[in-house]
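User: Fold this; tokens only.

Assistant: Input:
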Amino acid sequence: MSNIGSYEHHLEDFDSEIAKRELDWKEGELLNIGHMCSDRICQRGHGDRTALIWEGFGDKSARYTFNDLRVLSNGFAKFIRDDLGVGVGERVCIFMDKIPSLYLSFVGVLKAGAVAQPLFSAFGDESLEVRLKSAGTTAILTTQKHVKKVRKILDRLPDLRHVVVVEGNPDKLKEAERFFDVEAAPRVEEFDSFRADPESRSVIHYTSGTTGQPKGAQHVHNSIWSQALTAKWVLDLKEDDVYWCTADPGWVTGTSYGIIGPWALGVTQAVLDSGFIAARWYRFLQDHKVTVWYSAPTAIRSLMREGEEVVREHDLSALRHLASVGEPLNAEAVIWSEKVFDGKAFHDTFWQTETGSMMICNYPGMPIKPGSMGKPFPGITGAVLDLKTHEPVTEPGKVGLIAFRPGWPAMFRIYWNQEDVYRSKFVGQTDGRTPDELRTADDLWYVSGDRASIDKDGYYWFVGRDDDVINTGGHLVGPFEIESALIEHEAIAEAAAVGKPDPVNMEVVKAIVTLNPGYEPSGDLELSIMNFIRKTLSPLAMPQEIEFKDKLPKTRSGKILRRYLRALEWGEDVGDLSTLEED
């Protein structure tokens, strides 16, 4: 039986304390995410349980128990607080590949009371500089492989007092750099973790840049309640599971559900740090008998391209639950996964850096409508707001803005040093209210920036980013619906749909596509694709132009960068491209 049981029952019987009961946490116990993901699990008698199964390049591998996690994270916490002198609330950047020290140091930073600032290790020095300068970062933990990027920008970062290398050759460091190998250092059995209050700052995540300049979303220790409960009910995590979240902790998924949620539940996590190769991924699932798998639509579509034969070459019988995050999951991918994984379909989930935890989901035991985002999580009040009046839409199928009543525990507290931008995320009477009042007001809506509709059964259907929707001849056309239809064409692997200027219709649809192996661009193929969309959707949705590319521009977290493609069509400033995936 699934953890959530009856979704409808929880809608009627939800209260804000349920997560604490699920974790058997009592008032007065230590509230600190780092402590709760390590020491607390050991205190409950599970110290010998495996916390982390890790594999990297070159067949490197390691295993850590929750007791290892406790002691080694203590080592990082002591080093950060006592040796470096980093104070409570100061930002510590974690800038490394998905090596064990990333996960151990994340827990340690939080135990020390500092704010963890994980950043994607593929960032170049300019992208790194923007985020370190914005956050006023005090210390950075990195590796010999990446420290050269820090050296290039160090003289432009007056707040950065400490550069610490945690992996590599200490003899190759510069004079001002420190070396700290946590596994070679003396084990720290006892550490007095920072006693956080619910609003103590914990993690700062920078948005991926799909909608302009990256913004630092500040989260707090109280977020653990949202993250743990959604991990239990949506991912259906149980104590004996082996769980794999493919996201990098440089992005919010990789911390909320690649560290906090599962470890708060005492669940074993598997981490693969070796890039994307379909056979390698399937072998990892097979070898470690992964039971619950949380991945991204980009990866799922890439697996689809590799075909079904490679799936059948591996024993994936341990898998029992699949979920998806990052971008909307196309209906075709849901149907494909159900076919190749013995009836198990990917369950799409919708949430954002700002929300900190899942908001609209498909739940175990609830029927999936392929292509739908699902329904709001119990305790979350969701709506689709009219584009003009900002009143909730009651008509099934009518498109509006996805919005939520503020106040859930994992909601971000501010955009770092950008209060005006934070205010712009709320609709209603915001004048005269402090940021704290905004995030707890039951008469306001937090607006996600995405558009959707709700069907007669209460399922949400994604349309597109508010600024991605195409207005052709006065009709609003959602890019996601077009893209979903495009990849149903046998020739197309991936697709992006954007509006391009048109003197008659204001905008028309342009499709940018990549092709499956065995297909080549041609006029006949272009005509075939246009007619396919005309018949599948409508003449309004039919692309007036199709551009064939070898790859689509994406952020480093795998999201298609539509605003970049649209800006090229309109001759506009492309904005911040620091997260654009490099060739």
